[in-house]
Amino acid sequence: MAFEGLSSKLQGVINKLKGKARITEDDVKEITREVKLALLEADVNYKIVKDFTNKISEKALGQDVLKSLTPGQQVIKIVHDELVELLGSKEEGLNISSNPPTIIMLAGLQGSGKTTMAGKLANMLRKQGKNPILVACDIYRPAAIDQLEVLGKQLNIPVYSDRETKDVVEITKAALKQANSKLNDIVIIDTAGRLHIDEALMDELKRLKSFAKPHEILLVVDAMTGQDAVNVAQSFNEQLGIDGVVITKLDGDTRGGAALSVKTITGKPIKFAGIGEKMSDIEVFHPDRMASRILGMGDVLTLIEKAEEEFDIKEAEKIEKSIRKQQFTLEDYLAQLKQIKKIGSMKSILGMLGIDPETIEKSKDAEKQFTRAEAIIQSMTIKERRDPDILNGSRRRRIAAGAGTTVQEVNKFIKQYTDTKLMMKKVMNNKGMLNKLMSKAEKGGLNIKDFKQ
Pairing state of beta strands 270-274 and 282-284? Predict the structure, then answer.
C-alpha cells in the first residue's frame, strides 16, 4: 500500500494531537521531530524535510494556534496543508490541444513501466470519449513492441509499429499521418529507455521532441526506486524538459519518498499515479486527496469516482431489485463481490475511507474470504446458486473439492449468506428499523448489533 510506513507514523502523530486542549512549544518541538523522522524514513530528500518541518514549526508556534480553543486541530490542519503544498498544491491535468491530435510523449528509464502506462493512459482517455492511438518507438527492445501490440489488442486501441524502420522520427511521421486519416485525436508515443541516462538516449529523445513537438512530455518513474527516481526526474527535466511526472508502482512503495520529493526537486507536477497491475489502475494525482489519505483522513472522492467508473449500473439495479423483492440469490452475491473487486483491493478501499492502519492490516483476512466465497459460488451449478436449500452433504463435498477448500468452509459461507439474507429481510420489512439504521449510519455510529433486533 502506498505510503504505508509514512502514513502509519504520521497518523500516530495526528492521534496525539486530537483533542489536545493546549499545546506548548515543547509539544510543537516533539511533533516536528517525529514528523521529520517519519519523512526521512520514507526516503524523502533531507533538504525538503528540513524546509517542510521548519514551516510546520513556524506556523504551529504562531499565537493564533497556541491561543486557539482547538490547537490540536489547528496543527493537524497545518501539517495537512503543508503536505498538500509539498505534493504539488493542486492537480494538473493533461494539456489537450484545441487542434487535434494531442501528442503525448512518454519518456523514462528501462523498467519504469512506460509501455504499461501508455496502455493505461490510452484506456483512461478513451473512457473520457477520446480516440487514442499508441505508437511503438522503442526500436531497440522487440519485446516492447510486442507488449504494446498485445495491450492494444486487449484494449481494442490501435497501435502503430514498424519493425523495419530504425528511425523514431520516421516512425512517428508515419504514425501521425495514420492518426490524421483515422481521426485519432490522441497520439501516445512509447519511447525507448536505458538502464541509465546516456547521451545516445537523450539525443534520440531530443530529435523526437524537435520533430513531433509534443503537447505533453511525461516522465515515467518507478516509485520503488526511491531517491533514484527523483534524481532521474531531475536529470530528464534538465536535459530534455518535461511537462509532468507519472509515478508507477505507487501501490508497492510503502515509503513514498519519490512522490513527496519529485515536485519540489523538478518544479514539475505529478500528473498520474499507477496503483496496480490492471489497465484501469491509473489515478489522476490529486495532492489534496493524497495528503488526506496519508494522514488517515480518507479519500472518499476518489473512491466514488472509481465506483462510478467501474460499477455496472444495470447490474447494481438488478441486485437492488432482488433485495427489495427478498430474492437475493447466491448469483446476486457473486455479482456484488465482482462489483466490489472492480474498485480495488479491500485494503485500498479501507484506506480511502480513512480506516485506521491496524484495521486495514486485518483486512487481509477479509480479502481471503472474498476470494474463497467467489470460488465456492463458482463451483456451484446455476440451480444451486438460485436455491441453496438443495445443498445436501454430497453437493457440499463436491463444491468444496471444486473450490479447493473444506466442507466446513462451505458450511460457514452458506451460514454467512443465510444470515445476510435474513438481515436484509428484517431491514426491508421494518421501515422504522431502516430509518433508524440510516440515521445511525449518517452519524457514523452503526454497529453490527443494530441488525440483530
Answer: antiparallel
Of 87, 112, 134, which residue sits at a domain end?
87
Classified as helix, coil or strand, 271 is strand
Cβ pair 35, 53 in contact under 8 A: yes
Answer whether 80's CB lies under 8 Å from 292's CB: yes
Residue type, 65: V
Mean of the per-residue pLDDT values of the chain: 81
291 located within any domain: yes
Residues 329 and 285 in one domain: no
Q: Is residue 186 a part of any domain in this protein?
A: yes
- pLDDT above 90 as % of the chain: 34
Same domain, 138 and 274: yes
Would you state the cell numbers that stand for residue 52, as one nine-digit string? Answer: 517542510
Question: Each residue of 226-248: pLDDT tens digit?
Answer: 778 888 999 999 999 999 999 98
- On whether both 358 and 268 belong to a single domain, the answer is no
Cα angle value 284/232/223 (rounded, 5°)? 45
The predicted pLDDT at position 278 comes to 85
pLDDT value at 372 more than 80: yes
CA distance 306 to 316: 15
d(CA 357, CA 58): 29
Provide the H-helix boundaries in 96-251: 114-127, 142-155, 168-181, 199-212, 227-239
Residue 76's domain comprises: 4-87
